[in-house]
C-alpha cells in the first residue's frame, strides 16, 4: 500500500513538473552563448535587443542590435512598437537585465524571446564577434589574479559594483 502511494506521488510530481516546465507563450530558458549565436544565425527575420545603457552600448554590441535600456521609463512603450511576431534576441552585460526584459517582452505578447545566458560577458569569453568599437577582452578577474593580489597586500578591499546594477546604485 505504501509503495502504491509513493508511486502515485512520484508520478504526480513528474507529471506536474513536466507540464509547468514546458513554458508556453514563447518562454524559453536563457541560451548559452554558442546556442544563442547558432539561433541568431539560423533565424532570418529577427530583432536583436541590447537592453544596456547607451554608454554601455557605445562600448560595443552585437551586430545589428537596437539599444533599448530596460531601466528607462519608456522601455515598455518602445518595445510595444516592435513586431510581436518577429523573434527577439535580448542581451545585457551579465544576464540580469535581459532576464527582466525577456519577461516584459513575453508579458507584452512577443511569441519568441531568446535571452543570452551570462550576457556579453559570456559572449566575449567565447570569443564571439562584436560590432565595431567593442572590446573583445573578457570582463573577468581570475582566481590567480585575486590570489596574487592577496599575496602582495596585507589588506584588500573588494568592491563589487556596476553603474548599470540597480542594487549597486542603491
Quick summary:
This protein is of the alpha/beta class and 170 residues long. The chain contains eight helices and four strands.
Helix content: 40-55%
For the biggest β-sheet, the strand order reads: 2-1-3-4
Biggest sheet features: 4 strands, parallel
Distance between the ends? 56 Å
Number of H/I helices: 8
What is the average per-residue confidence, as pLDDT, rounded to a whole number? 80
Uncertain parts: 13-26, 134-139
The proportion of residues in beta strands is: 5-15%
- SSE sequence, one letter per element: HHEHEHEHEHHH
- Write down the Rg: 20 Å
Q: How many strands in all? A: 4
Provide structural commentary.
The chain is of the alpha/beta class and 170 residues long. The chain is built from 8 helices and 4 strands. The model is unreliable at 13-26 and 134-139 (pLDDT under 50).
Describe this protein with a few key phrases.
170 residues, alpha/beta, 8 helices, 4 strands, globular
Q: What's the helix and strand layout?
A:
Elements: H1 2-21, H2 33-42, E1 47-50, H3 54-58, E2 66-67, H4 75-80, E3 88-91, H5 96-107, E4 113-115, H6 119-125, H7 143-152, H8 166-169
